[in-house]
Amino acid sequence: MASNHYKQKRYLPAFKALSDAFQLAPNNIHIALNLLQTLAAISEMKSFEEEHTVGLQRCLSILAASTLNEEQQEKYNRYLEMLPSQEELSVKDAS
User: Fold this and answer.
1) I want to staple 10 with a disulfide (CB 3.0 to 4.6 A). Which of 5, 46, 53, 79 is the partner?
2) What is the pLDDT of residue 91?
């Protein structure tokens, strides 16, 4: 379901579905990467909210502590480049 939302550029419902899945499987690298990709897309829409910042922190925590294969590492790096800086997120959250 989340992948269908994402493919149709419905990023907020994709975020919700992936967040729910991440709650059930918090150490799943694939879910964390998909959630990170979705958060990167949401950030490009300029609609990053506090719940997205919390989700981002959870993803980054799990992924930083995980051993990623080469393909996963490439995705991780690519998605990180798409995200705003922590300072930019703090400014958006404060608005």
Assistant:
1) 5
2) 45
CA atoms 77, 44, 18, 11: torsion sign:
negative
User: Which DSSP letter does residue 66 get?
Assistant: S
The domain of 68 spans 2-94
Q: How far is C-alpha 79 from the chain's CA centre?
A: 8
Q: What percent of the chain has pLDDT over 70?
A: 89
* One-letter amino acid for residue 43 of the chain: S
CATH number at residue 27: 1.25.40
Count of domains in the chain? 1
Q: How many Cα atoms are found within 13 Å in the side-chain-facing hemisphere of 2? A: 19
